[in-house]
Amino acid sequence: IAVWDRDTTDPKLTCDHQMTALVFSKRRLEIVTPSRQSLRIWGALSGEIKGIYKEITSSNITALALCLLERRLVVGAEKGHLTVLNYACGATLKTLSAHGAEVSQILCIPGKIITLSAPEKMILIHDDSHPKKSSIMKKIDAGAQEPPLSVMSISRDSGRRLLAATSAEGIIVWYNTDSG
């Protein structure tokens, strides 16, 4: 097991910038972390950098998700941009509709990609059924509800297509990802 140390002098074992997200690939035994607008792929057992995908976004990466089959990475950025990448080579597969503010969290369920922008108080459910294009299936504006919510986190129950959102106000709200 590798240990990452921020104070090390070996650039292959550390990152000079804040790591704002992380995904772990069980299948490949790799860890993916952002470093500003780039992604670093680390060997989970060796701790060595296996690859770097440079300049993936135009602003700092703030959220990451690995799709269910672990073939695609979904990347969210500080300015709201969302990109789906081929995990094996870093090529852009498609661009999702952007948020108006920082992407805070990304979830993948069969046929859908769910994104949260906490500053915007907006959850977007993207149609992920086509390999090269995407559309928004549903917008959930938590700030427009009564009472208005400051959504902090989302979680899913993919078996029932349910989405739970927690708020700064101490409320948990359930949404059906298919109907509302």
Q: What report would you give on this structure?
A:
This protein is 0% helix and 47% strand. It has no helices and 15 strands. It has strands spanning 23-25, 30-35, 38-43, 49-53, 61-66, 72-77, 82-86, 92-96, 105-109, 112-117, 122-127, 135-141, 151-157, 162-167, 172-176. It starts with 22 loop residues before the first strand and ends with a strand.
Q: Classify the helix fraction into a percent range.
A: under 10%
| Largest sheet: number of strands, sense, barrel closure | 4 strands, antiparallel
Evaluate the radius of gyration: 17 Å
Could you give the distance between the termini? Answer: 44 Å
Give me the side-by-side strand order of the main sheet.
1-2-3-4
Quick one: how many beta strands? 15
Shape: globular
| Helical segment count | 0
Describe the structure concisely for a colleague.
The protein has 180 residues and is mainly β. 0% of the residues lie in helices and 47% in strands.
